[in-house]
Automatic annotation (TrEMBL):
It is a single-pass type I membrane protein. It catalyses: L-threonyl-[protein] + ATP = O-phospho-L-threonyl-[protein] + ADP + H(+); L-seryl-[protein] + ATP = O-phospho-L-seryl-[protein] + ADP + H(+). ATP binds at K373. This is non-specific serine/threonine protein kinase. It is found in: Cell membrane; Membrane. The chain crosses the membrane at residues 288-312. Its EC number is 2.7.11.1. The keyword Signal applies. InterPro entries: ConA-like_dom_sf, Kinase-like_dom_sf, L-type_Lectin-RKs, Legume_lectin_dom, Prot_kinase_dom, Protein_kinase_ATP_BS, Ser/Thr_kinase_AS. Residues 344-606 form the Protein kinase domain. GO terms for biological process: defense response to bacterium; defense response to oomycetes. CDD domains: lectin_legume_LecRK_Arcelin_ConA, STKc_IRAK.
Length: 696
């Protein structure tokens, strides 16, 4: 009798897997095939590279990439509805833009759809969105490999693996590590960018899920996580299985190199050596290729240019629209600017930034020296709204602003004419890249302090002293220009309208520069005077310390300038942070005030920052003004003021933010919005908040 049963079961076990539609698969590298024959379904920005590596995201902000096995798999026994055992092994890597910062993460997912419609990037990992997070009708199960500590979701650190059930708050999570054969636990850093192998094994009888990670081909003897869970209630009968990855303001390239999956069995481990190699960090030395192609292209271009020239000469007059004519005297003709800049010749180039190039020019008649900023912008609407405001922007006058003299529009280009600042931008005096060191003069402390006071008063003027509130949105060292007397003058004001229009009209972009972006800005998408104050604080610290707000050449503890200054300030060792190239020649009291103001202004909670009026008062100080101690972030972040937290701050692997953990689980964004915290304006209805989420 028992013999018969055994035989029967054996037969069954041989027959059944073959009868069920699919019991496993294996990808050793991935193949793109032709357009539709790829045997893995991709969406978002996921792509299969020539090497056979599957790249889920690259190092651009706020991306989502998904890769799913194309067919549904039967995850439950149709008779009794119990979830089957399954097992999977996959090899992945996350190569971040800034090694010590990481940039969101990757997750193994079992989900009802391959698209995960409506999911958000950043801390949502491309799995869920703010409105469905935590809802048990999602039927989403994930194992996350997260490189950013997100307080909203109670992340334990910025290098963890967690089990997520319909939520991004993990049911269990732990720092990434593996057990050696000697039983010792070894830490692994996902952010180091090496290929790792992970195993996810579910025992449908014992109802336990194990997760194991290792940098090697063989499976460690002990799993990293072992979590009792009955997947029967979470999964549908048939589900898709795959991966999701996302980037936020900070980003990583997330790669998948191989993937084995087995239902009702044990997936084979991957031999990491037989998988495609990770792309090498890009090296820039294709000079001779460029030389060759340049020659041939040049000949071609010469022919085309000759042919097109006549046509354009007639067709390409400046675009003048009736409403522009009402704008007054500020309009320049294109030919005037062209001859001023000697045909926008490269030798006249002063520099280039996010929107285009800046040329030096001499106006034909007045012989006045100007800087011409050539903005190429895809959004006609953006340019239109901007030009509509130029009339009023042109009226802004302050001795610490770079005067806008006028503009010119020509097809998709907008040319902005500013006073020429002979000493260029502040960044060139503060940060010495090795080549420029000998040629630059050092700014003395007195000069630096005067520049800061100048910029502060210009910003106060924009915020409070003019008829409208003007938010600058892009305060940073390269937008502070120095005139002949080394006075600081703020440039690029009033460009906010252009920033608001991205290439895609359906998105509202928060543009700014990493390190100057206030945390609540990335959350609400709405720039405020207080987010300008944040950037001003970052600028002040930069000037004091002579280094960038985020400097990936610095040691990990010094990477984020504001954290480092905080740490030194609170331990009373603030003299450590003062730019060493000043050689100790500075006014202690002024430096102390500057550091205080810098810390106060770049406080993570908007409510704790001073206004520009207060900042100016502190800086102009004199003996009568008492500069308060900067409120320390842990204290400042109690209660409501936490509402401004977002992934950007969460990404700081910093001591000062780590201390927040106990009190810093933020309300969900909807709660924050409806409770009316922070500066969320009338735009903060759900559509807007979703847009800003997606595109910040
Ligand atoms: N009025 C000016 N006089 C002299 N040099 C200028 C002037 N305006 C800009 N520059 C130079 O041109 C460079 C590029 O300026 P641009 O504003 O395009 O870029 P950015 O300030 O680095 O970034 P962003 O696009 O965010 O403003 C600046 O770094 C500065 O050195
Ligand atoms: C996918 O296709 C490649 C070649 O086209 C093949 O080697 C691989 O086994 C296929 N994988 C699956 C899971 O179908
Ligand atoms: C791929 O599939 C789409 C529709 O699914 C079809 O329109 C397209 O022609 C296909 N391309 C090729 C190369 O087969
Ligand atoms: C990353 O991918 C996006 C979308 O595919 C693309 O627009 C962007 O240029 C890429 N960025 C880099 C740095 O390759
Ligand atoms: C499904 O469950 C039934 C009843 O528990 C059992 O007899 C059957 O073998 C199971 N099928 C599979 C494929 O495990
Ligand atoms: C959130 O995702 C769900 C699908 O999971 C979608 O139906 C819903 O519209 C999304 N919500 C938002 C605000 O995008
Ligand atoms: C969960 O999602 C379902 C369907 O999307 C919806 O009907 C339900 O109201 C949601 N529950 C909560 C608590 O949001
Ligand atoms: C996982 O956590 C959620 C709360 O986030 C809880 O409702 C659920 O019961 C947990 N599931 C398991 C299996 O522990
Ligand atoms: C491993 O990581 C944990 C948590 O991050 C840490 O407490 C521990 O000191 C680390 N161990 C080693 C050997 O680095
Ligand atoms: C999970 O790990 C435990 C040890 O922690 C082991 O006893 C069990 O067999 C493992 N289960 C699976 C499905 O790998
Ligand atoms: Mg600029």
């Amino acid at each position: 009798m028992p013999k018969n049963i055994t035989f029967f079961l054996l037969l069954l076990s041989l027959v059944l897997p073959a009868a069920s539609q699919q019991d496993g698969f294996s990808y050793i590298g991935f193949s793109r095939g032709d357009a539709n024959s790829s045997n893995i379904s991709l969406n978002g920005v996921a792509e299969i590279e020539d090497s056979g590596i599957l790249r889920l995201t690259n190092e651009t902000s706020r991306l989502i990439g998904h890769a799913f096995y194309p067919d549904r798999l039967q995850f439950k026994n149709a008779t009794d509805g119990a979830a089957f055992s399954f097992s999977t092994a996959f090899a992945f890597a996350a190569v971040p833009e800034y090694t010590t910062l990481g940039g969101h993460g990757l997750a193994f997912v079992i989900a009802p759809s391959k698209e995960l419609q409506g999911a958000l990037p950043s801390q949502y990992l491309g799995l869920l969105n703010a409105s469905d997070v935590g809802n048990f009708s999602n039927h989403v199960f994930a194992v996350e490999f997260d490189t950013v500590q997100d307080f909203e979701f109670g992340d334990i650190n910025d290098n963890h693996v967690g089990i997520d059930i319909n939520n991004l708050v993990s049911n269990i999570s732990t720092a990434v590590a593996y057990y050696g054969n000697d039983g010792k636990k070894n830490n692994i850093s996902i952010k180091a960018g090496h290929t790792l192998q992970a195993w996810v094994d579910y025992d449908g009888v014992g109802k336990v899920l194990n997760v194991t990670v290792s940098p090697f081909s063989s499976k460690p003897p002990r799993p990293l996580l072992s979590f009792p869970v009955d997947l029967s209630t979470i999964l549908h009968d048939q589900m898709f299985v795959g991966f999701s990855a996302s980037t936020g303001l900070l980003s990583s390239s997330h790669y998948l190199l191989g993937w084995n999956f087995k239902m009702n069995g044990i997936a084979r481990s991957l031999d990491l050596a037989s998988l495609p190699a990770l792309p090498q960090p890009k090296k820039k030395d294709p000079t001779f290729v460029i030389a060759i192609s340049a020659t041939s292209v040049a000949v071609l271009i010469a022919i085309i240019v000759a042919a097109v020239y006549l046509f354009y000469k007639i067709k390409n007059a400046d675009v003048i629209e009736p409403w522009e004519l009402e704008m007054g005297p500020h309009r320049f003709s294109y030919s005037e600017l062209k001859s001023a800049t000697k045909g926008f010749r490269d030798r006249e180039l002063l520099g280039f930034g996010g929107f285009g190039k800046v040329y030096k020019g001499t106006l034909p008649v007045s012989r006045a020296e100007v800087a011409v900023k050539r903005v190429s912008h895809e959004s006609r609407q953006g340019i239109r709204e901007f030009v509509a405001e130029i009339g009023s922007i042109g009226q802004l006058r302050h001795r610490n602003l770079v005067q806008l003299q006028g503009w010119c529009r020509r097809r998709a280009d907008l040319l902005l004419v500013y006073d020429y600042m002979p000493n260029g931008s502040l960044d060139k005096f503060l940060f010495f890249d090795d080549e420029s060191r000998p040629s630059k003069t050092l700014l003395l402390w007195a000069q630096r302090f005067r520049i800061l006071r100048g910029v502060a008063s210009a910003l106060l003027y924009l915020h409070e002293e003019w008829e409208h509130v003007v938010i600058h949105r892009d305060i940073k060292a390269s937008n502070v220009l120095l005139d002949a007397d080394l006075n600081g003058r703020l440039g690029d004001f009033g460009l906010a309208k252009l920033y608001e229009h991205g290439a895609n009209p359906s998105t509202t972009r928060v543009v700014g520069t990493l390190g100057y972006l206030a945390p609540e800005l990335t959350r609400t998408g709405k720039a405020t005077t207080s987010s300008d104050v944040f950037a001003f604080g970052a600028l002040v610290l930069e000037v004091v310390c002579g280094r960038r707000p985020i400097d990936h050449k610095a040691t990990p503890e010094e990477l984020i300038l504001v954290d480092w200054v905080w740490e030194r300030w609170s331990s009373g060792r603030w003299t450590d942070v003062v730019d060493p190239s000043l050689g100790g020649n500075y006014d202690r009291e002024e430096v102390e005030v500057a550091i205080k103001v810098g810390l106060m202004c770049s406080h993570p909670a908007a409510a704790a920052r001073p206004t520009m009026r207060e900042a100016v008062r502190y800086l102009d100080g004199g003996d009568a003004v008492e500069v308060p101690e900067p409120p320390s972030p842990p204290m400042g972040l109690e209660g409501n003021s936490q509402a401004g937290f977002d992934d950007f701050v969460h990404s700081y692997p910093s001591s000062s933010f780590d201390k927040l953990s106990p009190c810093s689980i933020t309300p969900t964004r909807d709660a924050a919005v409806s409770a009316g915290h922070g500066k969320v304006g009338p735009l903060a209805h759900s559509t807007f908040s979703r847009l800003s989420r997606v595109s910040v």
